[in-house]
Amino acid sequence: MNYDRILIRYGEISTKGRNRNKFVEKLKRSVMTVLRPFPKIRVEASRDRMYVILNGENGIEIIEKLKHIFGIQSFSPAIKVERNVEALKQSSLELVKSLYKEGQTFKVTPKRSDKTFELNTDGINHTVGGYLLQNIPGLRVDVRNPDINLRVEVRNEAIYLSCENILGAGGLPGGSSGKAMLMLSGGIDSPVAGYLAMKRGLAIEAVHFFSPPFTSERSKEKVVDLTKKLAGIYGSAIKLHIVPFTDVQQAIREQIPENYTMTTTRRMMLRITDEIRNKQEALAIITGESLGQVASQTLESMFTINEVTNTPILRPLITMDKTDIIKIAHEIDTLEISNRPFEDCCTIFVPASPKTKPRREKVQHYESFFNFNPLIEEAVQEVETLVIQPYDQHSEFDSLF
Description:
This protein has 14 helices and 16 strands. The chain is α/β, with parallel strands linked by helices. It folds into 3 domains: 1-82, VC0802-like (2-Layer Sandwich); 85-157, THUMP fold (2-Layer Sandwich); 179-398, HUPs (Rossmann fold, 3-Layer(aba) Sandwich), CATH 3.40.50.620.
């Protein structure tokens, strides 16, 4: 059967009230962006449903793309039928015949959004079901676990028939919840945190701290590739801000007692990220922290590190086990990149015995002997910004700083 459209169901968007149309418009833009490689398609959106009109494009490839778009609860390849009983019966027969194999069972699942249609749901069930049984020898009914579930949706403009219900990514459309900065290392956790934040409708920009010559260009390439993966999921370009961090880290090593260097390093990273956030007009900072995973992720460490900003810090992984994080990393295809053996600045300067319960007053005391402000300002001014495109193998440079 040649389907002519794909019916998209909204899920969580349907719970929105007066703002629903804004969410629908965001989702429509996401769908159109992701489906740019298919120039013949047309996207139609209403308050309750969205349709991708295929116009001869490859439906199988489009289905794979739609599976990863946030804001889609489920979708079905469908055919559009005139609003009359004979057309409904004939089109239903053609669709089920195209899928039927000897001995299979079926059921009809009607939904009548337009109550003016001449048949109610029971009438649709009996009329269509009886017609299929009469015209397909060997076909049997199974209302609990059918091999073929024919969905009949009667709407104001037409009737839509489908036999598949494919799960989407869920969540909210990209950019519908505002913008936040993702602190992106080369590890496993932060790309997963970025993915989960995007699933809740956040547009993200990434911030990576780079310390040459202690970190190599290969570690930088690793982060670019991680950002490219996230951009591919998001369906749009993501800015990657690369912060030169060598001078700040060396000052920390020289001025701060060793067991507190990790705490101060995180505080300086947060201060710099917050400055970039302010310039980019974002509203929050996202980290890949998971409670108790490492020394800097204890509750005491977070309490001490957070002191340097009033900006909301979002931690999507905070209660997750490492095995759960790794599972998601595998699913979104970032795990292999994260496991490349190229260290970032967070791992090369780890002290032998980092403080797991640092105190604010102590770190304030240690930092008071050195003015970090000029180094922070210099790092922000020298940020290199790349625009990572989801479909392009190259990145563009912006002169934002």
